[in-house]
Amino acid sequence: MTTTYEVVGNAEDIDSIIHSVSTVDTPMHNLARKGKADGILVQWQQRELAPPGENARVEGADAGAAGYTATEMLNNYTQIMEKVFEISTSQEAVKSHGRKSEIRDQGTVKAKELKRDVEYAFTGDWDAAPNGGAVGTARRMKSAGYQINADNRVDASGSALDKDNMETYILDGLQKTYEAGSQVDTVYLTPTQSRIWSDIARAEGRTRDVKGSTVVNFVDTYETPFGPVAIALSRYQDPETILGVDSDLWQVDTLQKTKLESLPKTGHAKKMMYSTELTLKCLNNKGSFMVNGVNYS
């Protein structure tokens, strides 16, 4: 009897689909407004109104002293990002399982990786030092957390995050932004934080009101004294932070749109590069909050 163990030349059984577990979740980028940058240093202005107070004048009196509410200049640097891949001409010519073209396949992969890197620049390392660059030094933008006003930061370093203090931290942040005149619409949580949040929701007997959305993974709607807030999952966010944002006060300005370019060929290979240059603007730094120093032990 002849079996498969003796026969040479049987066809391979290889799935024609390449399966990936690395998803592309970019909620901060998706919800922010979009704009255009005209230089490597992007600047904008914010203004804070004078606090309300007693205002009564005597009938017939002359006008009082004139006042002026000044603006404050804010800025951020554009950051160049790239993903490079190189495929030999032989590899492009041979028949491969799961893709017709190695160049096209790698192009798709690198485009997704670039999007993830952009989101990480926004939320992944909140206190990474920004810089304007120099010869031999890359420019680095300010992250979302770095741009939030220090008065709107809630310190959570005193104890491990749990369902008893997590809601307090978030409410403290919401109160800070509300008193500053803003209305936070979204709170971003990491996967670990979202599990703690689910314990809070269950303890309060709430049912999850999940929005049908293809761009942001909303996991809950939170009714607060300061208005309803969406709770969203942020996959690449710094685990030491919780972010609460007014989405209308964040903008992504692009200097160089994402593009795929062929680099000069010097041999039997084709080298390609995906690149972009952009920055993140917090249009008013008291319109959002951050819980920082989050720890789990």
TrEMBL record:
Pfam families reported in the protein's UniProt record: SU10_MCP (PF17236)
Source organism, top-level taxon: Bacteria
Name listed for the protein in its UniProt record: DUF5309 domain-containing protein
